[in-house]
């Protein structure tokens, strides 16, 4: 996005392309990482991971974890993913997680974009 905080049509289309089913997994993972790295620290912090879980629960009323369960999920996730042992998830660790579990970013596929590019090739 340009520094004027306004998204023009070209920027919008480029941003939307990340959701095309044919976009490489690595590009999708990098984009998702930027979303989850809320503080722009270059890593997904435990608090950001917890914030994501809370947001997910808000959208799914059938899921309701108490504070202890949330902490356990964050700690278990970090134990599995944080290979550097620094208590955060760096981009390489995130990519390794996404490669093992592509469903983590399954929300980043909009099949309608495949149909549009088939109907209206460049």
Automatic annotation (TrEMBL):
EF-hand domain sequence ranges: 24-59, 69-104
Pfam families listed in its UniProt record: EF-hand_7
Keywords: Repeat
Gene Ontology molecular function terms on file: calcium ion binding; kinase binding
GO BP: calcium-mediated signaling
Keyword Mitochondrion found: no
PROSITE patterns: EF_HAND_2
CDD domains (alphabetical): EFh
Family: Belongs to the calcineurin regulatory subunit family.
PANTHER family per the UniProt record, alphabetical: CALCINEURIN B (PTHR23056), CALMODULIN (PTHR23056:SF110)
Name of protein: EF-hand domain-containing protein
Naturally occurring in which organism (per UniProt): Prototheca wickerhamii
């Amino acid at each position: 996005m340009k520094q004027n905080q306004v998204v023009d049509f070209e920027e919008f289309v480029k941003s939307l392309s990340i959701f095309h089913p044919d976009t490489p997994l690595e590009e999708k993972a990098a984009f998702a990482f930027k979303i989850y790295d809320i503080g722009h620290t270059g890593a997904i912090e435990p608090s950001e991971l917890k914030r994501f879980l809370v947001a997910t629960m808000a959208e799914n009323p059938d899921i309701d974890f108490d504070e202890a369960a949330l902490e356990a999920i964050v700690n278990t996730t970090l134990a599995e993913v944080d290979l550097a042992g620094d208590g955060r998830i760096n981009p390489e660790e995130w990519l390794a997680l996404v490669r093992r579990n592509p469903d983590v970013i399954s929300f980043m596929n909009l099949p309608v974009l495949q149909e549009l590019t088939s109907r209206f090739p460049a």
